[in-house]
Amino acid sequence: MTEEPSSLDGLLQLVRDMSSGRPANPRKGDQRDGSVYAPTPQIRTAVQVALITGRPLLLSGPPGCGKSSLASFVARSLGFSYFEFVVTDDSDSQDLLWRVDSIRRLNDAQLSKLTDEETVFTNYLEPGPLWWSLNPVTARRRGSGSEKTRPANPPRHLREYEATRNGAVLLIDEIDKADSSFCNGLLVPLGSRRFYVPEINDMVENGPDQLEESPLIIITTNNERDLPEAFVRRCVVLPILGPDADRLKEIARLHFPVLETDEALMSGVAKLAPRFEADNSEHAHASTAEFLDLVEVLITLDVELDSTEWQLIEKLVVEKSIMRRNAFSQW
């Protein structure tokens, strides 16, 4: 891995220079590989503040507005490793730090697979995403100095990508899905960027070969549940606002390069964009992701926007009337 730029000023310059990129693969579903993003000045500033302060960056906004995809884009832009943890309603904050694979250990015991070398307890200690983000060296050896411990393998969330610097971006996605105990369990680990593992009687903290500004932790919330005040206090908070029509057209061009050369298709996108423009009302609004789905259909199918078939397509992709009932009555 290269060590340049290793200073905070160098990392901040990388954030200022973040380019929008080009999709590495054809868009199917949500784009989470970090290859393309259109960062706003507000996003650039928020990432810089998070790097300077060492605080997690908490992104709030409706589903489909691009919160989660920012993390992998920033990781690629900085040359950092990328890890993620998707929160569910039964998630335990402990899983972010480490867990003991008791089931595998029990199975090995029942199958008489536990030889003298394999009875090493740390063989069943599984480092979590925060451990890998802080200190991948000790995570790989499961916090043990014994040669009998089997090395752990880091999770790979970005295919065909290799980090070029000793740093990490950690995404904690949809944290509002869990109850307040999940957030409260992370107050100390995220606030101090370290945690204690009693099984090995040792502290996990930023490794000596890692950049001081690492890891950059990005957390997302859809605002479905209020987060504890003590948790919010420890974060840099940025609401992700819905894009206007011009930004929607920019996003579409980034995801679908064909629009830059096909004026007819771009004209159709320009007609669609104002209808997806965010406003200040409290009514439900179609997401940027749904807008991109429609653009993809528009590019692939030869359908006129004023046709009956296109009206059906909009109902399938956006209105979803059976599920959303009257949320899009004004669509």
Helix proportion:
25-40%
**CATH topology assignment of the largest domain:** Rossmann fold
> Which range does the strand content fall in?
5-15%
Rounded Rg: 22 Å
GO molecular function: ATP binding; ATP hydrolysis activity
Domain AAA+ ATPase: 53-244
Region (Disordered): 18-39
Protein name: AAA+ ATPase domain-containing protein
Please explain how this structure is put together.
This protein has helices at 8-16, 41-53, 67-78, 94-97, 102-110, 129-134, 136-140, 180-184, 187-192, 229-233, 245-255, 263-276, 288-300, 308-319, 321-324; strands at residues 57-60, 81-86, 98-100, 125-127, 168-173, 194-197, 202-205, 216-221, 236-239. The chain is an alpha/beta fold. The protein has two domains: 8-94 and 155-239, Rossmann fold, CATH 3.40.50.300; 245-324, no CATH class. A five-stranded parallel beta sheet has the order 2-5-8-1-9. Strands 3-4 form a two-stranded antiparallel sheet. Strand 6 (194-197) and strand 7 (202-205) form a beta hairpin. Helix 11 (245-255) crosses helix 13. It is elongated and about 70 Å long. The N and C termini lie far apart (50 Å). The model is unreliable at 280-284 (pLDDT under 50).
